[in-house]
Specification:
The complex is a heterodimer of chains A (about 325) and B (about 290). With about 325 residues, chain A is of the alpha/beta class. Chain A contains 15 helices and nine strands. Chain A folds into two domains: about 50 residues; about 250 residues, 2-enoyl-CoA Hydratase, Chain A, domain 1 (Alpha-Beta Complex), CATH 3.90.226.10. Helix content of chain A is about 50%, strand content about 15%. In chain A, strands 1, 2, 3, 4, 5, 6, 7 and 8 form an eight-stranded mixed β-sheet that branches. In chain A, a hairpin with a 2-residue loop joins strand 2 and strand 3. The radius of gyration of chain A is 22 Å and the shape is globular. The relative contact order of chain A is 0.11. In chain B, about 50% of the residues are buried. In chain B, strands 3, 5, 6, 7, 8, 9, 10 and 11 form an eight-stranded mixed β-sheet that branches. Chain B has a two-stranded antiparallel ribbon with strand order 1-2. Chain B has about 290 residues and is an alpha/beta fold. Classes of the chains: A alpha/beta (about 325), B alpha/beta (about 290). Chains A and B meet through helix 7, helix 8, helix 9, helix 10 and helix 14 of A and strand 4, helix 5, helix 6, helix 7 and helix 8 of B. Strand 9 of chain A pairs antiparallel with strand 4 of chain B.
Chain lengths: ~325, ~290
C-alpha cells in the first residue's frame, strides 16, 4: 500500500466537493456558494500543507514509487526531437531502457532512460523498470556511440533495481552493470544524470555516474530498498520505515552528504500534481548543467569527474583513533 | 612501513587465538579434518576438494613469494550515517575486527609472485561479509592507481556480499570510485586479473570484479549479482543446485577458467608471463 496514495484520498475528496460546488454555482447563479467554496479551498490548502509540507524519508520512498509519478517518457516527450534507438545487437531489445538521440533545448544529446510502466500491461512489457543485462548493454552501446559523435549523455533514473531473475544471472547481470559504470567513469563526453523516481542500488548506479547528479525533490537514491535493508540488517521487514530514515536516501540528505549536485523542486503534493511544471524545471536544470560542462575542455570534464568519484567516502587512520581515544 | 612478514605473523597469532578448535567438519562431505592439516592444504578438504573460505592473510601467504608490503594498512571506516540497527556500526566493526584479525574487509599491497612484481588485494569475507564501504573502495582504488604508477599488473581476489549497507549510498558509490581508478590501469595497458572466490555478489561483482581482463573462479564458488534468496522470493520457486556457481559462470560464458586453489599461483604466473613478456622479475624467493 502506498502511504502517499492513502494520504491523498482526503484531498481528492475535497477536490471533488469543490468541483461539484463550482459547477453547481455555475448552474444556479442566483444561489451564492462563494463562502462555502472559499472555506473548502482553505481547508484543502491547509490539509495539503499538513500532508506534503514536510515529508518523512519513508513518505518520500512512497512518493518516488507513486503510481501516477511522471515516468521517463514524460521528460523525453518534452525534448525538441527524439529518435529512439533499439536493441543491444546481441540478444533483444529491453523495454525497461529507452535510449536514443535527440535535442534538449536545442542541444544535441544521447538520452538513456529507465522506464517503469503506468498500468499492468505496460509494466509487464517494461518489467516494472527492472533492467536486464541486455538493457545495460543497449545503454553501453549508446554510451560508446555518444562518445564517437560527441553527444553529451543525459540519463533518467527510475528503477527499484536491476532485474533479479534467472535469465539476468545467466546473461551476466553483474558484468553488464559493471561495464556501464566503468564506461561512464571515463566516457569523453559530459554526463548529466537525473534521478526522477526510485534510484535503486547498483541497477540505478549503472546510469547514475556523471559530472552532475540531479535529483527531483521527492526522488530517492539508495544502496538498497528500505524493505531489503530492514530484512537483512534488522532481520525484520517491519523496520523498513526506520531503515528509510537511517539510509539517508532523500535528495536533501544526499546533497548534504555531497553526493548529488542539484535538487529540482516539485510542486506541493509531488511531481504528478503538475507534470508539465516538473518536466520543464528538470529540463531547464539539465540544460544549464550541459551548458556549463560543454563550455569546458573535455579533458578537464573527465579529470574533474575522476577527482569527484575518487574522493567519495572518508576514513580515519588507526593511530588517529587511538590519539582521540574514541572507538 | 612495518615488515609485512612480521605483520603476517602477528595477524596469524590473532587468528589462532580466535579459533581454538582442533577439528573441523567439512560442510560438503562431512569428513572430520584436523585443522593443522586443513591449513597446510590451503583450506581445501583432502577428501572432497571442498574449498573453504580463506582469510585474506592466508590467501596472501599462499600467493606471494616472500614479503608483502601492505598499503593503506591503517585505514579505518568512519561512521558517515551514524548508523544503528540492532547494534551500532562501530560496535559491529569492533566485533569483526576481533573475530577476523583484520581491520577492514580487504588487505592490499605489493609483492612478487614467481618473481613477478604484482599489486594484490584480497578481500576477507570474515570481516563484515567482505562488504565494500569507503575504506574497501579506497584500498582497491589505491591498488589500481599504485599498480599503474609502478607499472605492475594487479590481481584482486574477491569475497564479498556487496556494498556495505551501514555506509549507505557512499558505499554504493565505491563501485564508481574503484571503476574510475581501474581506468588508470587500463590506460597503462597493464593486466588486471580477478579471482572470484566464495561468495562474490552484489556491488562488488557488479563493479571491479567483472571488469577484469581475465576472470578466474575457484571451484564451486558462488558468484552472482542478486542473492539466491532475493531471486527465490522474486520468482517464487526454488533455484536449481549449481545456480550461480563457478561452473555456471563458465557454462554461460562469464568467466575464463576455474582453477583449484593449489594451482592458482602457478596459473597466475603463467598468465602474467604470457601477457607481460617483459615483466620486471626479481629473484624468486619461494
Amino acid at each position: 500500500m502506498n502511504v502517499i496514495v492513502e494520504r491523498e484520498k482526503g484531498l481528492l475528496e475535497l477536490e471533488q466537493r469543490i468541483g461539484d460546488l463550482k459547477s453547481l454555482s455555475e448552474q444556479h447563479p442566483e444561489a451564492s456558494f462563494v463562502n462555502e467554496i472559499h472555506a473548502l479551498e482553505e481547508k484543502y490548502a491547509s490539509l495539503q500543507r499538513e500532508i506534503f509540507g514536510n515529508l518523512t524519508a519513508w513518505q518520500k520512498v512512497h512518493m518516488a514509487r507513486h503510481p501516477m509519478r511522471p515516468r521517463a517518457t514524460a521528460f523525453i516527450a518534452a525534448l525538441d526531437e527524439f529518435v529512439e534507438l533499439h536493441g543491444d545487437r546481441a540478444f533483444r531489445d529491453d523495454a525497461a531502457v529507452i535510449g536514443g538521440i535527440g535535442r534538449l533545448g536545442g542541444r544535441r544529446v544521447m538520452v538513456l532512460a529507465q522506464q517503469k510502466g503506468r498500468d499492468t500491461k505496460e509494466n509487464v512489457w517494461r518489467n516494472f523498470g527492472m533492467v536486464h543485462p541486455e538493457g545495460y548493454r543497449k545503454a553501453l552501446r549508446l554510451m560508446r556511440m555518444a562518445e564517437k559523435f560527441a553527444l553529451p549523455i543525459v540519463t533518467y533514473i527510475d528503477t527499484s533495481g536491476a532485474d533479479p531473475g534467472i535469465g539476468a544471472e545467466e546473461r551476466g547481470q553483474s558484468e553488464a552493470i559493471a561495464r556501464c559504470i566503468l564506461q561512464l567513469t571515463n566516457v569523453r563526453v559530459p554526463v548529466v544524470a537525473s534521478v526522477i523516481g526510485e534510484g535503486g542500488s547498483g541497477g540505478a548506479l549503472a546510469f547514475g555516474v556523471g559530472d552532475r547528479i540531479i535529483m527531483l525533490e521527492h526522488a530517492i537514491f539508495s544502496i538498497a530498498s528500505p524493505e531489503g535493508c530492514a530484512a537483512i540488517l534488522w532481520k525484520d521487514a517491519s523496520k523498513a520505515e526506520e531503515a528509510a530514515a537511517r539510509l539517508k536516501l532523500t535528495a536533501g540528505d544526499l546533497k548534504a552528504l555531497g553526493i548529488i549536485d542539484e535538487i529540482v523542486a516539485e510542486p506541493l503534493g509531488g511531481a504528478h500534481r503538475d507534470v508539465e511544471y516538473t518536466v520543464a524545471s528538470l529540463l531547464r536544470e539539465q540544460g544549464r548543467a550541459l551548458d556549463v560542462l560543454s563550455a569546458l575542455p573535455i579533458e578537464r570534464v573527465v579529470e574533474e569527474r575522476y577527482a569527484k568519484y575518487r574522493h567519495i567516502g572518508s576514513w580515519q587512520r588507526e593511530n588517529e583513533r587511538m590519539v582521540r581515544g574514541a572507538t | 612501513m612495518p615488515s609485512v612478514t612480521d605483520w603476517l605473523r602477528g595477524r596469524k597469532r590473532q587468528l589462532e587465538r580466535r579459533e581454538p578448535g582442533l577439528w573441523v567438519k567439512c560442510p560438503e562431505c562431512s569428513e572430520m579434518l584436523y585443522r593443522k592439516d586443513l591449513e597446510l592444504n590451503l583450506l581445501v578438504c583432502a577428501h572432497c576438494s571442498h574449498h573453504f573460505r580463506m582469510p585474506a592473510i592466508d590467501r596472501i601467504a599462499s600467493l606471494i613469494d616472500g614479503e608483502f608490503h601492505e598499503i593503506a594498512a591503517d585505514l579505518e571506516p568512519r561512521d558517515p550515517l551514524n548508523w544503528t540497527d540492532v547494534k551500532t556500526y562501530p560496535q559491529k566493526l569492533a566485533a569483526d575486527r576481533e573475530k577476523s584479525g583484520v581491520i577492514e574487509a580487504v588487505v592490499a599491497g605489493f609483492g612478487s609472485m614467481g618473481g613477478i612484481d604484482v599489486g594484490l588485494a584480497v578481500m576477507d569475507f570474515f570481516f563484515r561479509g567482505g562488504t565494500m564501504g569507503a575504506v574497501v573502495g579506497e584500498k582497491i582504488a589505491l591498488l589500481f592507481e599504485e599498480s599503474a604508477r609502478r607499472a605492475v599488473p594487479a590481481i584482486v581476489c574477491t569475497a564479498s556480499g556487496g556494498a556495505r549497507m551501514e555506509e549507505g549510498l557512499i558505499a554504493l558509490l565505491q563501485m564508481a570510485k574503484t571503476s574510475a581508478a581501474l581506468t588508470r590501469l587500463q590506460a597503462a595497458r597493464l593486466p588486471y586479473i580477478c579471482v572470484l572466490t566464495d561468495p562474490t555478489t552484489g556491488g562488488v561483482s557488479a563493479s571491479f570484479a567483472f571488469d577484469a581482463d581475465i576472470i578466474i573462479a575457484e571451484p564451486k564458488a558462488v558468484v552472482g549479482f542478486a542473492g539466491r534468496r532475493v531471486i527465490e522470493q522474486t520468482i517464487r520457486q526454488r533455484l536449481p543446485d549449481g545456480f550461480q556457481t563457478a561452473e555456471f559462470l563458465i557454462e554461460h560464458g562469464h568467466a575464463d577458467l576455474i582453477v583449484d586453489r593449489h594451482q592458482l599461483k602457478a596459473q597466475l604466473i603463467q598468465v602474467l608471463e604470457i601477457l607481460l613478456p617483459g615483466a620486471r622479475r626479481r629473484e624468486a624467493l619461494a
